[in-house]
Design goal:
Number of helices: 8
Order of helices and strands: HHHHHHHH
Radius of gyration: 18 Å
Largest sheet: none
Helix content: over 70%
Distance between the termini: 45 Å
Structural class: mainly alpha
Number of strands: 0
Shape: elongated
Strand content: under 5%
């Protein structure tokens, strides 16, 4: 995938809840299902990882349901599906190491010390907890809240929480690294 294509894909993926919310009164859900299917297939092709092929299959089922019943609910379930996929990826890496965060850390620090491995394992566990929490809220907003509340949570608040978790982890990591350098 080209850089421009990747940038468009990322922008559409991030904006998905807002695009769906904006389009709900303008287009039938069956037409919005095309966006869902395109995003899922592009992600599966771009990553070439089996888990994203499974996610694409799940998105295809949601798109088929949105098309068959011309209902928006399947489209609104996509963020919950993505959180479930991320949970499976991160949780599986805890069972079959290295952990997901350790793999990421080793890209910049190939000789990660044992304390770093333990730390990245703990961070992976924290992300698992986040995906449970965020996925549950994505599901609750899809099933029982207004379209506006769904779009607000999944299109803004969830991203703010992700940013907050990234920021907090970065601050903790700096303190942990400093402690190992001085201790």
């Amino acid at each position: 995938m080209s850089r421009i294509g990747a940038a468009i894909f990322v922008a559409l993926s991030v904006a998905y809840p807002l695009v769906v919310y904006w389009a709900m009164g303008r287009f039938e859900p069956r037409w919005l299902a095309v966006l869902l299917l395109v995003l899922a297939v592009l992600r599966a092709i771009a990553t070439r990882q089996a888990i994203w092929l499974v996610a694409a299959a799940g998105a295809a089922i949601l798109a088929a349901l949105a098309t068959a019943f011309n209902e928006a609910l399947p489209l609104k379930l996509y963020p919950a599906l993505i959180n479930a996929v991320m949970l499976v990826v991160f949780a599986t890496s805890l069972v079959f190491p290295p952990s997901a965060v350790e793999r990421i850390a080793r890209m910049t620090e190939p000789d990660l010390p044992p304390a770093g491995v333990a730390y990245t394992r703990r961070v992976t566990q924290v992300w698992c907890g986040f995906f449970v929490f965020n996925g549950a809220l994505a599901l609750v907003t899809a099933l029982w809240m207004s379209d506006r509340a769904w779009a607000l949570y999944n299109g803004l608040i969830a991203y703010a929480l992700i940013g907050l978790l990234f920021g907090a982890e970065w601050l903790v990591r700096q303190r942990v690294k400093a402690g190992y350098r001085h201790g």
